[in-house]
Amino acid sequence: MNAAEVQNLCKTYPAFRLKEVSFSLEGGKITGFIGRNGAGKTTTIKAMLNLIHTDSGDITYFGLPLSGHEKEIKQRIGYSTGTVSWYPRKTIREIVDVTKTFYSGWDGEAYRKYMELFGLDETKKPIELSEGMKVKFNLMLALSHRAEILILDEPTSGLDPFSRDELLEVFRTLKEHGVTILFSTHITSDLERCADNIIYISRGEIRAACSKEEFLREHGKPEETLEEIFLRLEREARL
Questions:
Q1: Torsion angle, CA of 84/89/91/97, rounded to 10 degrees?
Q2: Distance (Å, rounded) from C-alpha 132 to C-alpha 164?
Q3: 162: exposed, middle or buried (C-beta count within 10 Å: 0-12, 13-18, 19+)?
Q4: 78: buried, middle or exposed (CB in 10 Å: 19+, 13-18, 0-12)?
Q5: Distance between CA atoms of 110 and 107, rounded to whole angstroms?
Q6: Is the CB of residue 129 less than 8 Å from the CB of residue 83?
Q7: How confident is the model at residue 239 (pLDDT cuts 50, 70, 90)?
Q8: Cα(149)–Cα(218) distance, rounded to whole angstroms?
Q9: Distance in angstroms (rounded) separating the CA atoms of residues 91 and 122
Q10: Which residue ranges form the domains of the chain, and what is each CATH number?
Q11: Four-residue CA torsion sign, 150, 153, 156, 158
Q12: Positive or negative: CA dihedral 1, 55, 68, 75
């Protein structure tokens, strides 16, 4: 069963165009979203959250169209980027006290669990956090209201290898509990370790949307890693 579907999404900017983007997110699976900088990953994710106005296309979650059901849907999904845009001089505790008022499903126990897991200090301010800790803070907020779908834009950006490994283990645990995860990343080794499905976008167009095994079979050569396949496909696209 699909947890979310994107159909024929189009968005035109002066120097870039998102072209008839279509894919689905399989419920309870981890989907990796790959593509070079400027390929359209962040534009697609922003469209999925109605953070930008699109030219055309349909987006549904849980069988409900985003248009007309945005408030209800956003209670059930979480979003995190690789950066934090919260008030930099407020403490984590103060930011959380405001954030949780927006979610009827805010889970105090989950909040405390992820605070401990990520090693966050409630008395710290975002301006005092390292880039890696900012990522963890943003992700902690997304995980603390029992989201059924997590949409993550470069969630492992800025994390050291140990912290990335810790985060991937969190992803695998969430999947076991039925959470659907979409995350974009440039670190393809992370996808090799945990992704079930792959969406590959290049120059605003979806080039592949399938299981990881099918992607490796259809696009890979013997002994190629996912990163090597991605780099070769990008080189071929420029020819």
A1: -70
A2: 9
A3: exposed
A4: buried
A5: 5
A6: no
A7: low
A8: 28
A9: 7
A10: 2-76+148-238 (3.40.50.300), 84-147 (no CATH)
A11: negative
A12: positive
Laid out side by side, the sheet with 77-81 consists of 77-81, 149-153, 180-184, 30-34, 197-202, 205-211
Beta strand pairing call for 149-153 and 180-184: parallel
Ordered DSSP codes for 151-198:
EEESTTTT--HHHHHHHHHHHHHHHHTT-EEEEE-S-HHHHHHH-SEE
| CB 16, CB 43: distance < 8 Å | yes
Can you count the helices (H) and strands (E) in the chain? Answer: 9, 10
Q: What is the pLDDT of residues 117-176, one digit of tens each?
A: 889 999 999 889 887 788 888 888 888 998 999 999 988 777 788 888 888 888 898 899
Residue 161: both structure tokens together? 């290898």
Amino acid at 138: N
Q: How many CB atoms lie within 10 A of CB 64?
A: 15
The alpha helices in 78-157, defined as continuous H runs, are 92-99, 108-117, 131-143
d(CA 187, CA 197): 15
Determine the average pLDDT of the residues in 70-83.
88
Tens-place pLDDT, residues 189-200: 889 889 999 999
In this prediction the pTM is 0.90
Side-chain-side CA neighbours of 56 within 13 Å: the count stands at 7
Token pair recorded at residue 64: 């409900």
DSSP codes joined into one string, 8-32:
EEEEEETTEEEEEEEEEEETT-EEE
